[in-house]
Amino acid sequence: MVAHLIPVALLVLAGLAYLTRKRWAPRLARRGLDVRTVPWRWLLVGYPVTAVRMRVTWRQTALIAQLSISRRGNQRVLGGVAVSGTALRQSPPRLGVPRPTRDGLVVRVALHPGQTPRPFLQAAEALAHAWRVYSVRVTSPARGEVVMTVTAQDPLAGDDPSGKRREVPVLTAPVGRLEQGRPWIVSLLMVPHWLVVGTTRSGKSNWINALALALAPQPVALVGVDLKGGLELAPWAARLSALAVTRAETRSVLGALVDELADRMAVCRAAAVRDVWELPDADRPVPIVVLVDEIAELFLTDGSRASKEEATACATALLRIAQLGAALGVHLVVSGQRFGAELGPGATALRAQLAGRVAHRTADSQTAEMALGDLAPDAIDAAQSITTEEQGVAITTDGGVWMRARSTLVTTEAARQTATDTAGLRQELPRVTAVLAPALDLDKEGGA
Ligand SMILES: Nc1ncnc2c1ncn2[C@@H]1O[C@H](COP(=O)(O)OP(=O)(O)OP(=O)(O)O)[C@@H](O)[C@H]1O
Question: Which of this chain's residues are annotated to bind ATP (predicted)?
Fold first, then answer.
């Protein structure tokens, strides 16, 4: 009983803290804690209302969502049929005291003997409706209990309040925010290669732009492969070490990168180290991030021998880069509307190497399965339930669990401006520019 007074006590404390904040806030601010970031509205109004609503509706909600069990004592069994004149008494599992978080609350539920977490997983949506919250995520960290993490409002809606630039280690990129409100940090050091899928206008190019925005100020070479005629990556031209816009150019660029891998392997061998990160700073070659916008264009052929050969060469080079690149500082970020078996066996092999996954709204279950199937089946459903209005929202993985996230919106102007501002950091990749130069010269001659 005393436990149920805890939310009331928390509410009173939060109310007092809010009313007296002018007295103590400056002292905390001097120690680096800014109380303006405290979600007062949620703590003072949203949380208590939700906690009371949960408590009041729990018995009925648990009954309707089939989370209650009936006590045997109330049954009268005659010939195997319960014939008691009184209704069977249903007993809901014990709901703990909700603990407030920045954007919702967390509550533990003690399971009845014989109950499993599965019905709670299935009831998550019903509970979110009953409690009028954005989402309820159910986990079972210990036997005999489930933990429900309630998110009050869609944290991915509206502007990103943490949109300001921050200092990050090399190859680490804040690309947006996760549904818990934390920054969405992509680390190419931890997960070297990424696959980004989504139907048209779902936000794939924006995600690549958000990644490029974060990597552009770092000592990293960016190489673009944009078979949509270079339209998507054109704003980054000033910062890119190379931009391939046709499949022939892509074949040459990827071939040159495979040669670059061989060079780096020789350097590592000579220094008797296992990867470029073990080389002394002065000898370490610059990391290369290859951004591929629309992978399907690379794999699909018109049936002619030449085009089949070109596609196979690109697929083989991509696979080689994916297999060897992590140790040699060459990273792949591949995006595509569809990523299924119809792209050929090369696609499945490549997918296995692209451990980082970002799935925006997908039109077909095969693409969602390709991107998330090896993570969790409910992640596939989550990717398919992203609505057309939720552009930039995606399912991704973080520490082995999947979650919703939204990339930071990057305008063309911001991309162009950042590329211009960081053009001085553009890295020379002689092998790659050498193979593109003849093609560019031919263009010029043709145009003259
Ligand atoms: N994170 C985001 N927040 C808000 N709006 C976004 C976000 N990401 C994308 N959008 C909007 O969605 C539109 C489409 O995004 P984008 O071009 O990245 O999609 P795409 O998946 O690459 O599409 P396509 O495959 O047709 O090129 C953008 O013009 C932008 O207005």
Answer: 198-205
